[in-house]
Amino acid sequence: MPPIGWLKAVRKICDDLEVLMIADEVITGFGRTGRWFGVEHDGVVPDIMSVAKGITSGYIPLSAAIARRKLADAFPRTPSRKTFTRTRTPRTPSPVPPGSPICRSCRRTTWWKTPR
Question: Does the predicted model carry a pTM greater than 0.70?
Answer without folding.
Answer: no
